[in-house]
Specification:
The complex is a heterotrimer of chains A (229), B (396) and C (576).
Chain A (H helix, E strand, L loop, with lengths): L2 E6 L8 H9 L10 E3 L18 E3 L8 H5 L5 E3 L5 E3 L9 H5 L6 E2 L4 H7 L14 E3 L2 E4 L8 E2 L5 H4 L6 H5 L5 E5 L6 H8 L15 E4 L12
Parallel strand pairs in A: 1-11
Antiparallel strand pairs in A: 1-10, 2-3, 4-5, 6-9, 7-8
Chain B lengths: L1 H13 L14 H25 L9 H19 L11 H4 L6 H24 L17 H32 L12 H25 L3 H35 L2 H13 L1 H19 L7 H20 L3 H4 L5 E2 L9 E2 L2 E2 L10 E2 L8 H24 L4 H6 L1
Chain C lengths: L26 E2 L7 H11 L9 E4 L2 E4 L15 E5 L5 E5 L1 H9 L4 H8 L3 H13 L4 E5 H4 L4 H14 L9 E5 L10 H4 L11 H6 L12 E5 L3 H4 L5 H8 L4 E6 L4 H4 L3 E4 L8 E5 L2 E7 L12 H12 L13 H15 L9 H6 L2 E2 L13 H5 L13 H5 L14 H6 L14 H4 L3 H4 L2 E6 L13 H5 L6 E4 L1 H6 L7 E5 L4 E8 L7 E5 L43 E6 L3
Parallel strand pairs in C: 6-7, 8-9, 9-10, 14-18, 15-17
Antiparallel strand pairs in C: 1-5, 2-3, 4-5, 11-12, 12-13, 14-19, 15-18, 16-17, 16-19
Classes of the chains: A alpha+beta (229), B mainly alpha (396), C alpha/beta (576).
Chain lengths: 229, 396, 576
């Protein structure tokens, strides 16, 4: 069973609801974003690039099958689970940030200071926090907590805390365009496997050999810029 | 040093936010400091062990200084990394939960072993001179001098291997990372070694000149050291420029992107890291220059400064060239970087950046200088209280 | 080419002839007053059930009632010119409005329109063909479309398309404005204002202009605001702030959930609880469901519901006023009582809908269409009920008098329209009657059209202070420029720029947008003033009032249109 997902770039409208859903559910303080959406080639999201096709590209942790971050972690704080999800044990991480250097996708986020302090500096009422309010442990390891420690690294955890309840990740549920699908990449008949096969799913930076479990479907039928009778 | 400690305590309290680091540029002065000090440390024992392995008797007076500076620098290397750790109170996890595929774990192991080894080597070299008050710490052997020579010779190969390995392993921390083009080159480990030999020997030269002065007995030794320094530096230049050349020739965009950071935004720094040591080498090769203690110290400092800049330049092309940079669909001529969430929210500034211009803050610099001071302090303290140089002077 | 040449072969016309798009009052060559009341006696005699007055011609030569059967049009009733004999022996030349429309359309050749609009002729033709041949046709337009001086002409022109093709009163067909989430969908008379209360409703634009019909004799001295942020959003030409600064506005009170710019300018701020802390019912133009807002938590900090605030204010103004607000109940129960009352008295739309039903989920309102379908004008089309339908909260006769014939009137038979040549939809140049008239040099000095569009990251100005959403905007306001316009002014992407005209200025960061039209500068409205150095984008706009918008008035529903987009500016690089 290899848990993976597919993002249909034809359906993605670049609205960034997935960014906000993730930020909200996972209590990320100002400055920290686990999930990103941008418009390739353009300097401003949702403004078309000067040349080429306008499309939107959401990027979060790729949950690689050959993850450089897992291999470099000196204390086994970041590790892969059986289904391929890459998690971080917040109690184990020593904050050396080797994993951040190792990740080619720029998805890992460090707590440069106490999150509560960041919130307070940004104008939130003192001690106010948001996000899913309970700690979550998988096999005894603390892989989600509402307010993280300073000096440790965090990132998308494939909403492992919701998975065990049978719920889809926040970004999937939050997507108004229905552009996100999760499923078993090892099952050739799963929705994700079929989409990848039928619609030419591709990975980001395949030449780096990281083997992401995130696939993208190319945007074909975007705006038709020329009319012909 | 006190300032360094205070600065570190401040950072411990506030978090690493008081550095100029960010998610896209996550390693800076501290980690380049690791490379710098490890390199210096490696050089020290390379020199000392070479004396016994290759019979470079002219350099014998400096052997103890070699071991000492090696010890001081390797401990400095471990010290400079401490403030880079986000949760330093959890460092014991390294001992209890080591993950053995990680080059960082290998580095921790070899650096610690090297610290012990260099200390042991120093001890063995000092053994014959541990008299008087110091007799307490001397192990009882029949013939200390013979014992010292024997074991120095026996340990020499080990010391050499370890000296090389600490810097190779440190290089591997960087050069195994396929995600960072600037580091992912087979040239990095040999290049690190070349710089290490050059810089480490320079430190021994400086320490020796400061300790022994310019006396005829040592002039040949100094000349030999300078030749080693020069040769090693030229090898380093070759390794570095060979790497640049083949990438530039092939002309892939990703190489241009990475090299562009060095040659466009850090051109002055790069020019300095090449020209300063070259100038230093030229000066040191000049016999007249070597007549003056001040001139040697000055030239050596110039070389070390150049090496330090070289170490620092490990970081910008790796981090300012964002790895997730690609051609948007159908656009060959545009090479576009996917912005990274910086982790630092400042009102009125964009959290998402495709470039982070790092320059160390005062806190970082004070901590670094604190560790540098520590390194000097160890050498100075040991020189004062241990027979690192005294006996030598007496011999003359 | 259209498969139905409906203008030539009326027999193929598939819509009911009574709603063919012209008023049944045949227009004479010169029209004087049309006083429905004085002729109603005759209209009564001739009345065909369901219509008001028909077939009445008034000319300077006299008036006549015409019986449609006695008319012998040379063509079908859509189209034609004919002579009409009047009582008293005169005769008059008349033509149908449709004929007049056709004549006016001769000015709108494909070539001319393509050149004026910069839309390729083929595209215009394609739209026309599709509109004519595809059914149902629905036109949706946003508020920005009509927030221009001649916005009414735009709306009327668009309406022509659906009406001429018979696309109203049918499922999926029609014309809709997608603007706002406020729509009153049933009768609120029981709660709208207290019995015996006297409401003088003055359009906001009159307030900004300091004058207008119904304007209070002594002016407006105090401002009590809620559910809005006028000091950002309606501070046109900076007038609100100027009124506050000069003391002309002596007292300002605002209630809001966040400390908006309007709150900052207020003498008193009453913190309001949010949607999740109180009861309310909501309806929207976007769908026909009624929804109950229910409190999920108690009001936070010191906030209270507006109902409570108004009740407390009312009793302090006059102890007798309290009784209108269920003083014996706490604010939540009072709100529920109000909801029950309006549901019970709301009329056919809310018939049978109870609070209990709403507590379980959204409830669909009734409509005049079968199965409560959302088909505007269903009754008008299928049951010959006169236009217009009711526009709540006004009573029907308040708005009905604007459409005297009871038919769709794309020809406006009013003096002012005729004077301006706007009796039929007509193209008029932007800015001629506004910016260029105010300042003839504007053409050279302010060469960019200032369009303030909505941002993805706000709802107008709500959430302007939301840290997440501001991070998504790079924590800085942006202005979107066409590449050529920017280059001409030496502006590059990311430059800090000042947008200015004769009335005001504001600053932001430039984005070069390949999609931006040359000559248009787009600014995302809704930034609170504190993010703009207290220089508001609305200091640039002007509260123009087009006289045709004053011909009909019903408070809140038919009122002069705010022309935010009718604005010229220019832009230059600025110092930080």
């Amino acid at each position: 069973m290899r848990r993976g997902w597919v993002i249909d770039l034809e359906k993605c409208i670049g609205c960034r609801s997935c960014m906000v859903a993730c930020k909200q559910h996972n209590g990320q303080p100002p400055g920290t974003w686990w999930n990103r959406v941008f418009t390739p080639g353009s300097r401003e999201n949702q403004v078309a690039p000067e040349k080429g096709k306008e499309y939107f590209l959401p990027v979060t942790c790729q949950h690689c099958a050959n993850p450089p971050c897992v291999k470099v972690c000196p204390v086994d704080a970041t590790y892969s689970t059986e289904d391929g999800t890459v998690l971080i044990d917040f109690e184990r991480c020593i904050g050396c940030r080797y994993c951040i250097s190792a990740c080619p996708y720029g998805v890992r986020q460090f707590n440069w200071e106490e999150p509560k302090k960041t919130l307070y500096k940004a104008g939130y009422v003192e001690n106010y926090t948001y996000g899913y309010p309970k700690d979550f442990r998988k096999d005894g390891r603390l892989v989600y907590m509402p307010v993280r420690f300073k000096g440790i690294t965090e990132k998308c955890h494939f909403c492992v805390h919701y998975y065990e309840e049978g719920l889809e990740p926040a970004c999937v549920r939050g997507c108004p365009g229905g552009a996100r699908f999760t499923g078993d990449l090892d099952d050739p008949e799963s929705v994700v496997s079929k989409l990848i096969r039928d619609r030419d799913g591709f990975n980001l930076l395949p030449e780096k050999g990281t083997k992401p479990s995130c696939y993208y479907l190319p945007p074909r039928r975007k705006e038709n810029l020329s009319y012909d009778f | 040093m006190a300032a360094g400690i205070i600065a570190w305590l401040y950072q411990f309290q506030e978090g690493l936010i008081i550095t100029d680091l960010s998610n896209p540029f996550s390693w800076g002065l501290y980690v380049s400091g690791l490379a710098f000090f490890v390199g210096n440390a490696a050089g020290g024992l390379v020199l000392s062990s070479s004396i016994y392995m290759f019979g470079l008797t002219k350099l014998k007076p400096f052997a103890k200084l070699g071991a000492l500076t090696a010890f001081a620098n390797v401990t400095a290397a471990m010290l400079i990394v401490l403030p880079d750790i986000g949760q330093p109170l959890r460092l014991w996890h390294l001992i209890v939960y080591p993950q053995f595929r990680s080059p960082l774990v290998w580095d921790v192991i070899v650096l610690n072993m090297y610290a012990i080894l260099s200390l042991a080597y120093l001890y063995i070299l000092m053994l014959p001179d541990l008299t008087g008050k110091l007799q307490k710490i001397a192990i009882k052997v029949k013939d200390p001098l013979e014992f010292s020579e024997k074991w120095a010779k026996r340990l020499a190969p080990l010391a050499l291997v370890f000296a090389a390995s600490i810097h190779i392993v440190t290089a591997w921390i960087f050069s195994t990372q396929g995600g960072r083009e600037w580091w992912f080159t087979p040239a990095l480990a040999p290049d690190f070694l070349a710089v290490a030999v050059s810089a480490g020997t320079t430190i021994v030269l400086m320490a020796s000149v400061l300790a022994f002065g310019i006396k005829d007995a040592y002039k040949e030794g100094y000349k030999t050291m300078v030749k080693i320094i020069a040769a090693a530096f030229f090898i380093h230049l070759f390794l570095m420029y060979n790497d640049f050349f083949i990438h530039t020739w092939y002309g892939a965009e990703s190489s241009a992107h990475t090299l562009g950071v060095l040659f466009k935004d850090y051109l002055a720094a790069h020019a300095f890291e090449v020209i300063a040591p070259l100038a230093a080498v030229a000066l040191l090769l000049n016999g007249k220059v070597r007549e003056s203690k001040a001139a040697i110290i000055a030239s050596s400092s110039l070389l070390l400064l150049g090496v330090f800049i070289h170490r620092f330049l490990l970081m910008p092309p790796a981090f300012e060239a964002i790895p997730l940079t690609f051609n948007p669909i159908g656009l060959q001529e545009i090479f576009w970087s996917y912005p990274v969430a910086s982790g630092r929210y400042v009102e009125g500034m964009d959290t998402f950046v495709d470039r982070w211009n790092y320059f160390p803050t005062w806190v970082e610099m004070i901590i670094f200088l604190g560790v540098l001071a520590y390194m000097y302090f160890v050498v100075a303290l040991a020189s004062d209280y241990l027979p690192v140089i005294k006996k030598e002077q007496e011999v003359i | 080419m259209p498969s139905r040449a409906f203008h030539d072969e009326p027999d193929l016309w598939e819509g009911p002839p009574e709603i063919s798009p012209y008023p049944d009052r045949r227009a004479g060559k010169r029209l004087l007053a049309r006083d429905v009341k004085t002729l109603s006696k005759e209209a009564e005699n001739q009345k065909i059930p369901g219509y008001r007055d028909l077939f009445v011609i008034i000319t300077d030569k006299g008036s006549a009632i015409l019986n449609p059967e006695s008319l012998e049009p040379t063509h079908a009733i859509l189209d034609g010119e004919f002579t009409v004999d009047l009582k008293g022996g005169n005769s008059v030349e008349a033509q149908t409005v449709f004929t007049e429309l056709k004549k006016s359309l001769k000015d709108y050749s494909l070539e001319r329109v393509a050149s004026v609009t910069d839309v390729p002729a083929r595209q215009i033709e394609r739209i026309a063909v599709e509109a004519a041949t595809t059914a149902p046709l629905h036109i949706i337009f946003g508020a920005s479309n009509y927030q221009w001086y001649h916005g009414d002409l735009k709306g009327r022109a668009l309406a022509l398309l659906v009406v001429l093709t018979g696309n109203i009163g049918k499922s999926g067909a029609g014309i809709s404005t997608y603007a706002g989430q406020y729509k009153i969908r049933f009768n609120l008379k029981e709660w709208w204002s207290p019995k015996g209360g006297k409401l003088n409703w003055v359009p906001y634009l009159y307030f900004l202009n300091g004058k207008g019909s119904r304007y209070p004799k002594n002016g407006i001295k105090a401002m009590v605001g809620g559910w809005g942020n006028p000091f950002d959003q309606h501070n046109m030409a900076n007038r609100l702030k100027n009124m506050a600064l000069s003391g002309e506005l002596e007292f300002i009170l605002t209630t809001d959930i966040q400390m908006t710019t309007s709150c900052q300018w207020s003498d008193v701020v009453l913190p309001a609880s949010t949607w999740y802390e109180k009861y309310d019912i909501t309806a929207t133009p976007a769908h026909p469901y009624l929804q109950l807002q229910q409190p999920a938590i108690k009001p936070m900090f010191e906030s209270r519901s507006e109902l409570w605030m108004v009740r407390e204010l009312a009793k302090r103004i006059d102890p007798d006023f309290e009784k209108h607000f269920y003083p014996e109940l706490d604010e939540n129960d009072a709100a529920l009582r109000v909801i029950e009352t309006v549901l019970a008295t709301g009329g056919p739309e809310s018939e049978g809908i109870t609070l209990e039903m709403l507590k379980k989920g959204p409830v669909r309102l009734h409509s005049t269409a079968p199965g409560d379908r959302q088909i505007p004008f269903y009754e008008q089309i299928h049951k010959r009920v006169p236009f217009p339908p009711v526009s709540y909260p006004a009573a029907l006769d308040a708005t009905a008098k604007f459409v005297k014939s009871g038919r769709i009137e794309f020809y406006k038979d009013e003096d002012l329209f005729l004077e301006l040549g706007e009796q039929l939809p007509v193209h008029k140049e932007t800015f001629l009657e506004t910016e260029y008239k105010l300042d003839p040099d504007a053409k050279e000095k302010y060469r960019l059209r200032f369009v303030t569009r909505n941002s993805l990251y706000r709802v107008h100005s709500t959430h302007s202070n939301n840290v997440w959403l501001n991070e998504l905007q790079g924590d800085m306001p942006k202005v979107f420029l066409n590449g050529d316009d920017a280059r001409e002014r030496g502006i590059g992407h990311g430059d800090y720029v000042e947008i200015y005209n004769g009335r005001g200025k504001t600053k932001s960061y430039a984005v070069i947008d390949p999609g931006a039209r040359k000559g248009t500068l787009v600014f995302e409205q809704g930034w609170w003033a504190r993010y703009l150095n207290n220089e508001s984008y609305n200091s640039l706009t002007m509260p123009w009032i087009k006289p045709t918008h004053e011909v009909y008035f019903v408070p809140g529903i038919w009122s002069p249109n705010t022309c935010w987009n009718e604005c010229l500016v220019d832009v230059r690089r600025a110092e930080l």
